[in-house]
Amino acid sequence: MGKTFIARELRLEISILGVFIGIFLLFLIGSPRTFTRFDIYYSFMSTIPFSGIMALAITLVIISGEMDLSFPSIMGFSGWVFAKLSNVLIESGTNPNLTILITTLCCFATGIIAGALNGMLVVKIRIPSLVATIGTMFFWRGLVNVCGQGFGETLVPVKDTFLFKVFIGRLGEAIPAQALWFLVLTAAFWLILKRHKFGSHVLIVGDNVESARMMGIRVNRVKMTVFMQMGFCASLAGILASLEVTYLWPSLGEGYLLRTLAAVFVGGTSVFGGVGTMFGTFIGAIIIGSLEGGIVAIGLTGFWTQLIYGLIIVVSLSIYSYFRRRE
Amino acid sequence: MAEKDYSRKLVSMVEIQKSFGKVEVLKSVNFEVGHNEIVGLVGDNGAGKSTLIKILTGVHQPNGGEIYFKGEKITIHSVERSRELGIETVYQEQALSEQQTMWRNIFMGREITDKLGFLKIKQQRRETEKILREQMGFTSKAINTESIVKYLSGGEKQGIAIGRSLYFDADLIILDEPTMGLSLAETKKALDFIRNVKDIGKSAIFISHNIYYVYPVADRFVILDRGNVAGRFLKSKITQDELFEKMVHLAKTGKMR
């Protein structure tokens, strides 16, 4: 009988791992010189976590049966708040260590509030989340444009601070801190989804909202929390991505949307809600995040990347769909 | 009205009235459930069965009348309140999460956790196993705590919903059309689960418009018609065919005989 949960999930995760190993074997065969050396992995570790962390958060949103398209804009706006406020405080003579602490908290608050706004639109005003977050996607991006007038912000003044090292320092000169954060958060999200009451409620709400209500689960509160954690993770990604280059680009976050969603679906989470896997999202984020570098290393031009993205997504989704149908 | 001793019954609903706008759905209905008794609540669509039940489960508030539970006068203002009292409803739609495991379904909304909210999964699995084997009498190895509910049959799903309410110490289980949409074999299974409620000493209200399913398991029948109680019968005093005749006659003429 393959009808137990454990069997189903194991099969799904093994197939994700299969896709992952297949792709890295291709890289290894295509460009052994690049892929037997540490450098490319260092570069993966420093760039993948930004969208990876958001992929974990959006996985929870999708499992709950909702969607959020605004997270890249929330990342952009809360990142802008972080950078702008940092410069204002530094100019007024605040100690850099204190500055980055204050601005980090403000950035998180911005992300959480933006997420709560999405939650309110969905829960209170009852706009379907796919539509509501199209609206907020434009709104937050627009706010960065209006506030920043197209200018970026330097982050050099907070470069020698403690928190800077915590966020994107290098462990033993080799491992980027953001990679460790990604690992820690993957474990935390796994725990929340599989071992915590909240994760259980997210699964149940995404599975059947009416059942959840009848059994006394506070559906609205679950959905609000789900959108707020998405906002929080987007703001964290905003800090990490802008500190990594010590500069805030006003376009921060653009280009993350489809890549992040692709990571979730390549990872095997169902678009219909009620089921999902954090392990899958973790692997999915690595697959999607390493494709571009891998493709170029193999010797193909950058023109190939989108085509190969498309292939990987379609092939992996077909594999999962095949397994689901066979059950 | 003279003081009456309501403690002999588990639930007494006295002269319950309910209107929605100008429509009088219940016109002074008296309805009782005894201890360890299964009452069949029958009647055509629109007779007021589900309104009466929703008053008992706290979904609707009555416009008039009183409710006594275990001898005490109560008001049931919310679904949570009725649950606290020990009234559980097994809905037609069963309130299950189809893609989740058995143990997540049994404990949905009432998880066993530590102080930080982390699930005590081992304990939940153990309790689920107990419910499956002891309370519901599942013997097949194919059904276990890790089974996904989607793959159970309709009767088995009904069994899970009933078993879950028994586990949470309900004294009164309300079954709203529990055989709706089930095949004959599955209906038989669901009926066995309902008999089990009686065997372990609890009470149930079995709502249905199909006499043939209600008759074998209920001790007593209450027939609702257009907001009134049209008749009450003890099973020992009436055969299945007589009851059916009366229902048909009632539907045709609006009178009991």
Helix/strand-derived class of chain B? alpha/beta
Query: What's the domain count of chain B?
Result: 1
Query: Largest interface: which pair?
Result: A-B, 27 and 29 residues
> What's the number of extended β-strand segments of chain A?
4
CATH architecture of chain A: Orthogonal Bundle
Distance between the termini of chain B: 29 Å
Query: How many structural units, i.e. domains of chain A?
Result: 1
Find the CATH superfamily of chain B.
Answer: P-loop containing nucleotide triphosphate hydrolases
Query: Mean pLDDT across all residues of chain A, rounded?
Result: 92
Give the overall form of chain B: globular
Query: What is the CATH topology descriptor of chain B?
Result: Rossmann fold
One letter per element, helices H and strands E, the order of chain B comes to EEEHEEHEHHHEHEHEEH
Low-confidence stretches of chain B: none
State the main characteristics.
heterodimer; A: about 325 residues; mainly alpha; ABC transporter involved in vitamin B12 uptake, BtuC; two-stranded antiparallel sheet; two-stranded antiparallel ribbon; 14 helices; 4 strands; B: about 260 residues; alpha/beta; Rossmann fold; 6-stranded mixed beta sheet; 4-stranded antiparallel beta sheet; globular
